[in-house]
Amino acid sequence: MQLAHLWLTDFRGHQESEVEVGPGITVFAGGNAQGKTSVLEAVGWLARMSSFRGAPDSALVRVGCEKAIVRAEIVPANRGPDVRPDLIEAEIAAAGRNRVLLNRKPLPRARDLLGSLRTTVFAPDDLRLVKAGPAERRTELDDLLVALSPRYDAVQSDYERVLKHRNAWLRTWSRADDPATLDVWDEQMVRAGAELVRGRLKLLDRLAAPLGKAYGDVAGAAADVSGAYEAAWAGDVILDETRLDDVAPLLAEAVARSRSADLERRLTLVGPHRDDWRLSIDGLDARRYASQGEQRSLALAVRLAGHVVISDVVGEPPVLLLDDVFSELDESRANNLVAHMPIAQALVTTAGTLPPGLPAERVVWVAGGRLEAREEQGQ
Asked: Considering the chain, what is the average pLDDT of its residues?
């Protein structure tokens, strides 16, 4: 699918903005804090129903307003020239529930929108995928899972719900309570957690080859790049796609073993919510031993590999969102990224100059939350 038209109302600093987007590369240019990233953030919200910047929905609503509205025309793949695009309308509430319409009809659940638009996001803080703690990498895996199969959004929600209830019971537990009450929560946690882990393992198998290739493309030199799934609850068992049937029994055993410690700490100490995707370069943990240049190349490779996998599985490429990425790259990596950018619709923001090889079809100038298409390069 591709984005054809976008309207923003009271979204961040945009009171009323509208832009037509071409099938190639559209550049949003302008000074800092003028609203460039907000345009990409709005598109990204439609894809995942959350901000890729990690902001709560309330922060997306313009100050003093009750809701923000994002409307977009999406052209699905394999549509004939005479078929009208889909219209997505999302009302993002400053407080309360959001509302989503598809072709003027309300969706029963907001998550039913998932799959209508897919994006691959490149942002300046992507380095956190390598340098930060396990939570960042878990989130990346889970977001990719949802992009591949929207049903995993419900799987994640189920696991998070059970984990929340289990932790709440542990916090209020007293010795007069029967610990057997945990049996119900344990069973549900194992069921949802095992399904989530199995999805992650199958995804890592798909990512392995594209990740290594993407790293070599961006870094300009081949290296042995790998990503291993680390779950302390699995003990000495190395979890990968060949051990899918072992996940549920291993997790159930670990939860049972940890019960006494959980009661003492009043916290769920084992489970998929503590797992990691350990990235390595030439056998060394990239988080600890890679140089910053290697880490940046690896972060870009993670995004590129995810894009390749989604394109292969879904059958069409996600929309590329590149938020001021080139300002963070040296000339070599910037040129390598441009040379190996997937063929897909792309929205790019910049406050400066772009690599000369980037064939922008349209430049939209952004100032004070206003959009103006002043230039079409037609390359």
From this structure: 93
